[in-house]
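hey
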């Protein structure tokens, strides 16, 4: 019996009760349980921060405990709160046996401190330490995470618990709310599979301008999946509910901290009022029933609590939600089993939050064609950009101060969350529609789809561009942009 079947069976037989299966193989280095949690405060603020990298246990639910690597004795790591434009020092202490990188995702900071080996950031040595000094910008919901390669080791890189929110406060406020919550979506205990059980085609009705006339029918390589999920460190039903009162406006900061898959999220009977994507305010805030976040993406959205009851906010896919991806929203004076109602059909569309016209044409254009080579890396698929493997020597050379339009041609059968380090880009076209004003650092390019983003080359230094699915990045789905 496949493990996923076992989990599903458990979910069916125990109805709404949290899952309690724990028969997972532990990695060899984890046979000794790590020392008791020494978790510090969940939020750190100021100008000097210390992150300690060390083994942690995460109690997703009673009898459902995961051993992994975290920051400061916990996973997610502490929320780091910085002020835009005020210099900070982040001291990283690496109490593990492998070199590490801490990447500051969505920040416009120099390559030497961005936290990526490809850009030349110095490593944090095994059993060693290193300090990163930078001036945080721009304001918004950012995050930090490890940036090491995992390759075939699912206990390394972003499969571990090394991630956390990083909030940069600026002059502007997103508004006044009765409550504010930071929720990171995660999966745990990943494993390899050759069963394509997730339909990654976000919306089959989307245009597929990049679909080849003849499809590659060679058998695909192993992909990574998981069937244990959480929001922050708790599986659905295992943590404290979010307690609300009727009429409250509650602000949610969502992060997809998965290394694996795009995620959806819904709250029955309520709408999400999306006001910022990847931490940047959108020109056309709007209400939707279902959110979609690719790995690395953030959404700031508020909800008016106007439907008293006890609700599950969670993944619309039963298997994912029952596997733990959800949290209970409990109104005051309501006592009942948390209710889930499947949301009305909807498809995620970034352009709902943008302006309807394309931005003015940029000075220069760059095209990137993404292709997947089935089993191009032995057991695994490999990926190419413009038909070549990383690092595309001298191919993507930027002129400082020039505005570029980068067009992604996704000739693969997956939707990929594409992330540009150290810069922000503006979506110019996606799903065959023009748009402007949506500023992001990660965009999910649909299956066989195309997307164009504009950015100004104003951050000299090596700049990594990659798919935020760890396994894709590790097997070639990346490029290095350099300045002339
Ligand atoms: Cu990918």
């Amino acid at each position: 019996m496949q493990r996923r079947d076992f989990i599903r069976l458990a979910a069916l037989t125990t109805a709404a009760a949290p899952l309690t299966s724990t028969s997972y193989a532990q990695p060899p280095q984890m046979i000794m349980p790590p020392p008791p949690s020494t978790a510090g405060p969940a939020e750190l603020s100021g100008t000097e921060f210390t992150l300690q990298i060390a083994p942690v246990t995460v109690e997703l639910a009673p009898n459902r405990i995961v051993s992994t690597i975290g920051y400061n004795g916990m996973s997610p790591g502490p929320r780091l709160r910085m002020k835009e434009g005020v210099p900070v020092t982040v001291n990283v202490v690496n109490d593990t046996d492998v070199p590490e990188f801490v990447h500051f995702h969505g920040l416009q900071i120099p390559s030497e401190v961005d936290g990526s080996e490809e850009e030349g950031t110095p490593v944090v040595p095994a059993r060693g330490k290193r300090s990163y000094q930078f001036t945080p910008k721009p304001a918004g919901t950012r995050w930090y995470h490890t940036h090491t390669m995992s390759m075939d080791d699912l206990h390394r890189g972003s499969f571990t618990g090394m991630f956390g929110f990083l909030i940069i406060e600026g002059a502007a406020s997103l508004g006044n709310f009765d409550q504010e919550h930071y929720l990171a979506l995660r999966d745990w205990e990943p494993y390899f599979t050759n069963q394509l059980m997730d339909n990654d085609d976000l919306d089959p009705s989307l245009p597929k301008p990049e679909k080849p006339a003849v499809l590659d029918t060679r058998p695909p390589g192993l992909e990574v999946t998981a069937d244990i999920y959480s929001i922050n460190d708790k599986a659905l039903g295992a943590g404290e509910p979010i307690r609300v009162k009727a009429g409250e406006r509650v602000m949610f900061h969502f992060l997809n901290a998965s290394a694996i898959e795009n995620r959806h999220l819904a709250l029955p009977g309520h709408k999400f009022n999306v006001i910022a994507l990847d931490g940047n305010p959108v020109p056309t805030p709007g209400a939707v029933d279902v959110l979609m976040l690719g790995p690395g993406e953030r959404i700031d959205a508020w909800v008016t609590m106007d439907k008293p009851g006890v609700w599950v906010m969670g993944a619309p896919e039963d298997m994912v939600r029952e596997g733990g991806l959800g949290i209970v929203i409990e109104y005051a004076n309501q006592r009942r089993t948390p209710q889930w109602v499947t949301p009305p059909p909807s498809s995620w569309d970034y352009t709902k939050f943008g302006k309807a016209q394309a931005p003015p044409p940029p000075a220069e254009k760059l095209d990137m064609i993404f292709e997947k080579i089935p089993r191009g890396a032995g057991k695994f698929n490999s990926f190419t950009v413009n038909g070549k493997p990383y690092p595309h020597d001298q191919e993507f050379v930027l002129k400082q101060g020039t505005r570029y339009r980068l067009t992604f041609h996704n000739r693969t059968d997956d939707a990929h969350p594409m992330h540009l380090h150290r810069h922000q880009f503006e979506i110019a076209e996606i799903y065959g529609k023009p748009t402007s004003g949506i500023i992001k650092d990660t965009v999910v390019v649909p299956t066989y789809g195309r997307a164009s983003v504009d950015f100004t080359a104003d951050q000299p230094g090596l700049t990594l561009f990659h798919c935020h699915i760890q396994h894709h990045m590790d097997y070639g789905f990346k490029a290095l942009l350099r300045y002339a």
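Residues 3-13 form the longest helix (11 residues). Confidence is low (pLDDT under 50) at residues 1-38.
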